[in-house]
């Protein structure tokens, strides 16, 4: 199926879309219909997902930011989940848990220095909120500094550390949050003071457009935080777990954070789980009242089993070698496409398989997202810089599949180049009409 010429949806699919419109999100239903992208997830396997009618198959090049690093429905993990359910359930968050203990020990073994303690959550935002709470309690200070255009989730404190557009309609923001441009350690030092508890950064900000930290930046932030007694939190919700060709992205920059936040891929795409991993001294904030922070579903025991196996898979040396080989394969292919489409595709940002296509302008990311969809590729532009299309393929692709991606992407780029002038005129008309 090509160029958006999808077959007429079945009555059953229309029914699902109607229900979704009436009971889940009328806005999303209208949006996807408007752009001819009303795909309803049906079968899914490895790097692919099919529309529920079976008429269209997409290759997942976004992976929900890393949730599907191992592809969809990894058979080993499914077997493990089934087997776990013959024995255990979510567990009880009040009690001592073998599953949480084993998983936390494995994380500690895989982390450097004394990043020894883990508190589990359900999602990334919740784990970020906890990181801020720990930093504030430990330092006795209030301010949290984050990067402009960064993204850490939609929960209370995480939202306050993110872009203004996501919080504006929702009333006053939590106090004590400041933002500075990513990549500029002087700007950070200019706003930090004796009341600064933490600096939080995505090691490679994804929603800002896969921005690779400039040479020396993270090192100088680390040194500054050390000097000023500020807790350095790295959000590795997207960059962790092998995505960048190392198990943790911060390993590329020769630094060690005080807190690392993990999510998405830890779930194996099957069972939600997140983790706030902290250096040993920071755990002291829970000594007085160990029950001061709880999460009923956080660190569910079946989720812990899955996450443990996920970590074992990621930390096999062959696994990361393969990620790096695939990353080189992608880079070669994209470079060839860049020479063919050099006025539209300007460059590639990349650290391992954490990649961003630099495009001509802010219209180009949304257009390429649509034409890629028409060419059976699921890609998503970076919300806080739509001139970049995020490219986060599953880490388990076969080399032949990369070649197929390049052929399809070639077609998608050619269509996007054709569509751009029309879209530009249309966006001007929409603007004039106040749409
Ligand atoms: C870098 C980063 N941090 C945190 C989050 C929040 O995770 P969740 O949606 O699981 O709350 C996300 C989600 O996209 C993310 O990309």
Detail the topology: elements first, then pairings.
Blueprint: H1 11-23, H2 26-34, E1 41-45, E2 48-51, E3 57-60, H3 75-85, H4 98-110, E4 117-121, H5 124-139, E5 143-147, H6 156-160, E6 177-180, H7 185-191, E7 196-202, H8 217-228, E8 231-235, E9 259-262, E10 274-278, H9 301-314, H10 317-340, E11 345-351, E12 354-359, H11 364-374, E13 377-378, E14 380-382, E15 385-391, H12 399-432
Parallel strand pairs: 3-13, 5-6, 5-7, 7-8, 8-9
Antiparallel strand pairs: 1-2, 2-3, 4-10, 9-10, 11-12, 12-15, 14-15
Helix pairs in contact: 1-2, 3-9, 4-9, 10-12, 11-12
The protein binds pyridoxal-5'-phosphate (PLP).
Describe the structure.
It is a single chain. The radius of gyration is 22 Å and the shape is globular. 39% of the residues lie in helices and 17% in strands. It has helices at residues 11-23, 26-34, 75-85, 98-110, 124-139, 156-160, 185-191, 217-228, 301-314, 317-340, 364-374, 399-432; strands at residues 41-45, 48-51, 57-60, 117-121, 143-147, 177-180, 196-202, 231-235, 259-262, 274-278, 345-351, 354-359, 377-378, 380-382, 385-391. By secondary structure, the chain is of the alpha/beta class. Helix 8 links the parallel strand 7 and strand 8. Strands 4-10-9-8-7-5-6 form a 7-stranded mixed beta sheet, with helices on both faces. Strands 1-2-3-13 form a 4-stranded mixed beta sheet. It has 2 domains: 11-68 and 318-397 and 405-432, Aspartate Aminotransferase, domain 1 (Alpha-Beta Complex); 75-314, Type I PLP-dependent aspartate aminotransferase-like (Major domain) (Aspartate Aminotransferase, domain 2, 3-Layer(aba) Sandwich). The site of pyridoxal-5'-phosphate has 14 residues, from helix 5.
């Amino acid at each position: 199926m090509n160029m958006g010429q999808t077959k007429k949806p079945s009555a059953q699919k229309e029914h699902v879309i109607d229900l979704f419109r009436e009971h889940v999100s009328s806005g999303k239903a209208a949006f996807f219909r408007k752009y001819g992208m009303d795909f309803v997830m049906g079968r899914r396997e490895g790097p692919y997902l099919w529309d529920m009618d079976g008429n269209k198959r997409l290759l997942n090049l976004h992976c929900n930011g890393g949730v599907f690093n191992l592809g969809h429905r990894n058979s080993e993990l499914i077997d493990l989940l089934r087997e776990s359910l013959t024995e255990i359930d979510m567990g009880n968050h009040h009690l001592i848990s073998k599953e949480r203990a084993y998983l936390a020990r494995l994380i500690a073994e895989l982390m450097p220095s004394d990043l020894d303690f883990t508190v589990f959550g359900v999602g990334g935002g919740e784990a970020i909120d906890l990181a801020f709470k720990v930093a504030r309690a430990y330092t006795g200070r209030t301010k949290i500094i984050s990067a402009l255009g960064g993204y850490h989730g939609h929960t209370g404190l995480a939202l306050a550390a993110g872009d203004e557009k996501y919080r504006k309609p929702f009333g006053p923001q939590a106090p004590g949050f400041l933002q500075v441009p990513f990549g500029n350690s002087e700007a950070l030092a200019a706003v930090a003071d004796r009341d600064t508890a933490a600096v939080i950064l995505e090691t490679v900000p994804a929603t800002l457009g896969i921005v690779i930290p400039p040479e020396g930046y993270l090192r100088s932030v680390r040194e500054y935080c050390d000097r000023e007694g500020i807790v350095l939190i790295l959000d590795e919700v997207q960059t962790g777990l092998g995505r960048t060709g190392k198990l943790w992205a911060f390993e590329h920059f020769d630094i060690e954070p005080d807190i690392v936040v993990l999510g998405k891929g830890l779930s194996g795409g099957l069972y939600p789980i997140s983790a706030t991993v902290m250096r040993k001294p920071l755990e002291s904030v829970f000594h007085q009242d160990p029950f001061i922070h709880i999460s009923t579903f956080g660190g569910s025991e079946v989720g812990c089993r899955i996450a443990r196996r996920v970590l074992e898979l990621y930390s096999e040396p062959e696994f990361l070698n393969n990620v790096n080989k695939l990353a080189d394969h992608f880079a070669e292919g994209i470079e060839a496409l860049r020479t063919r489409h050099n006025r539209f595709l300007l460059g590639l940002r990349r650290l391992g398989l954490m990649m961003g296509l630099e495009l001509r302008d802010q219209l180009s990311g949304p257009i390429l997202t649509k034409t890629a969809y028409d060419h059976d590729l699921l890609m998503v532009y970076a919300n806080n810089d739509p001139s970049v299309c995020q490219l986060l393929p599953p880490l388990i692709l076969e080399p032949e599949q990369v070649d197929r991606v390049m052929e399809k992407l070639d077609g998608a780029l050619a269509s996007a180049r054709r569509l751009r002038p029309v879209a530009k005129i249309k966006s001007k008309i929409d603007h004039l009409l106040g749409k």
